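agent: user wants the structure for DUF3726 domain-containing protein from Cohaesibacter gelatinilyticus. delegating to structure tool.
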Amino acid sequence: MSHSLNEIEAMSKRAARGAGLSWGLSEEASKGTRWLAAYGYPGPKLLADLLELNDRLPHIDFTPMSLDGVWCAPAGRLSPLIAGAAMSDCAIKMEAGEVISMRHVSFPLLVVPFAAGAALRLNAPVAVKWGNVRLTTNGKSLCAQGEYDEMLTDHADLVECAAPVAMTSPAKPVMRADVDEECWERLGAFAHRTYAPATDASRLLGAGAGLNDND
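agent: tool returned. relaying tokens verbatim.
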């Protein structure tokens, strides 16, 4: 099913919030999901997979314990959303020639949109690498190298982010993306958690017979 990028961003934001992420991180997650979808990657599916993996677990367990050295999480796997946001905030380290390394990252492709934000901040391309995959972005275009299946992996032992780097054969974003119905429903299930349950007062304020059944 084809969706506009605005639709994808709105659904992703509400789903992330429904999964318990802060509004700020939910907004970052939704923008990242939209960004990946614009380049033909299944950002919505990756987000749904991640939200299900970490559902109802403390987010602190997937947060870097330290931003010095190789980043690791208490649970043994880093959230790409939390680690990606931290990497973007620490972009100045890469400008100084430091490689930001993350150990055991879930769905590492979700880190790449944060690299796009870092690239815009640095005004220089940023590369994200794991295994034989390397994705480079200047924030407005993307250069992908490696096997597609490896880009969609659910786990990377080591993710490295570096800048500045060279870009070759960059791809430009599009304005719509296909999201299968099953994935949309999975995100919708998380989004539904953000809806306030009906109360007697809300029913009275709504349309229809309210609390009275006159049929």
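agent: one observation worth passing along. Confidence is low (pLDDT under 50) at residues 205-215.
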